[in-house]
Amino acid sequence: GAVVSQHPSWVICKSGTSVKIECRSLDFQATTMFWYRQFPKQSLMLMATSNEGSKATYEQGVEKDKFLINHASLTLSTLTVTSAHPEDSSFYICSAPAAQRSTDTQYFGPGTRLTVL
Amino acid sequence: GENVEQHPSTLSVQEGDSAVIKCTYSDSASNYFPWYKQELGKGPQLIIDIRSNVGEKKDQRIAVTLNKTAKHFSLHITETQPEDSAVYFCAASNGNQFYFGTGTSLTVIP
After folding, report:
1. Rg of chain B's alpha carbons, rounded to an integer?
2. Scanning every residue of chain B, which has its alpha carbon at the shortest distance from the alpha carbon of A101?
């Protein structure tokens, strides 16, 4: 299947700093990527849809100024958690569809664990 | 919007037995139903999927069934092995977005 990578896999930062997480589609192009947040023992919560060449679409309740998304190319989307606080600690996962339609088979990255001290 | 419910939330089976996880959905426009396996600290992995024009799909020990009339679909794992232990998520897509179930933690007891 298609491969999606994330970097870093785990990051620990101090409160108030910003953290950037990268999501890459390694063997296919993705005009759309999705960012999810997952709390322990819970399901995935869609945060936003990243669109190459245009602004991201955020889900209700997600602060766009807090979670900055940039879809720089057809293989890279970044999520920047600005001024991180302990409550932002979570598992962040991206996914990308492996076809032209935005909701075809989704392939997930391995996730990034963010711990804010 | 779509509402996906998944049961059970936890499931323990003896090695070699079968495991069944069930999901229901509410939006009749949903037409794509994938299942994901998530191991601790890792991202979800697609294990099998089914589209609304098919009633059943099988891949070795894993099978998925879909009942469009009743709006439910199920994951069947036969001859379970300890490495099948993980959290399994179902999802439903209506062509615009994915909606995930709440997950099932499967434990296969050796």
Report:
1. 13
2. B95
Half-sphere exposure of A4 (CA within 13 A, CB side): 31
pLDDT of residue B54: 84
Nearest CA distance, A20 vs chain B (angstrom): 18
- Lowest mean pLDDT of A13-17, A103-107, A110-114, B86-90, name the range: A103-107
3-state secondary structure A61-95: CCCCCCEEEEEEECCEEEEEECCCCHHHCEEEEEE
Burial B33-54 (b: 16+ CB within 10 A, else e): bbbbbbeeebbbebbbbbeeee
Q: A78-92, A97-111, B45-59, B79-93: lowest mean pLDDT where?
A: A97-111
What pLDDT digit, counting tens, does each position of A94-116 carry?
999 877 555 678 899 999 999 99
Q: Tell which B residues from 22 to 61 touch A, by Cβ distance under 8 Å.
A: 32, 34, 36, 41-46, 49
